[in-house]
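Repro:
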Amino acid sequence: MKKNVRGLTAAILSISLLTVMAGAAMAPALGAIKEHFDSSSPLTVQFIVSLPALLIIVTTFFFRPLCRLMPTRTLALVGLTLYVVAGAGAFFVDGIGVLLVLRALLGVSVGMIMPLSTGLLSFYFPPEEQSRLMGLSAAMNQLGGVVATLMAGVLATVDWSYAFLVYLAGLLAIILVAAKLPNERLASRGSRLELTTLLRFHPSVTAMLLIMLLFFVYPTNFALTSSEQGVDTIATTVIMMGLDVVAFLVGLLFGWLMRHLRRSMKYVAPLFFIGGYAVLAYWGGVTGMIVGSVLIGIANGMGVPYVNTIASIKGGRDAAITVMPLISAALYLGQFLSPLIVSPLAAALGTANAPYVVAMCLAVVFLLQVYITRRHQALPPA
């Protein structure tokens, strides 16, 4: 039985390993991609990172009908196959239009598998295990970011198109899911995605939206701003990879931290976002980049599993087809909107550190949202 549980856990976590690659993994390659498509605007190039999020959002709202149409393993395998084909397929194209179409299809694939990466944990495991497992899920997500960011950055030094080969990592998840994930149906008559669901879970949905609005200021701006300061692609890649390492370690410790710092955990993410972007905005230099990246890594590494834990425990066994699609939609809506909101505001400020100043102000809004909506929140099981 224990062996079966371990296999099931590995299959679910292998999906978590892939989801961050939809956008952020390409961030270190943006400089090389921009050089190749030099006639395209910076915002168009940034869409290579953020466009998948738009299609992920749309697809998550069709997730429950997809669960009715296909059992779990079949749905996961279809999504993972599309993930590999659309992701790695960008290696073979040389036009920005076709590239963006493939990025959109990649978003569809992640929209099919993202709710499974967290929702199946609430479906198969009891509430007392979910803090630890959500932390592991977030850690695997960040580990995928570490590996993919490093590989994409290194491969981009050979040629920009080679960076997209990182999506072949989806083949590992296909093997594990095919071998270990049960082929059950998640949808039931009593599990509906209604307006009351959104109203019930709005603190978690809004919090995830704000976390991603804030976090994605980093991958969509860091490579470009560091390049302006004379930092080369390899050094930028190493620093960005370091952020994912920090978030990975925080995810591994998340279950322990929830047991020992339960009352203050809700404030960790907004406070560290404020500190991280303040450092990036006003410290400067390589040292400031490293310190700011570490603080932002801690914020993201704490914030995502915290929101997922609270939402999954409150949603119960049906969380996979009720609240988790909403959380996934909010996560990627934040990614998609981040450059659209931050870039115009930063342009209005007109300073080199403007994106980070805007992010710092948004982090203050996040802190206020947490205080207002979670002052009387019931704590999850220890």
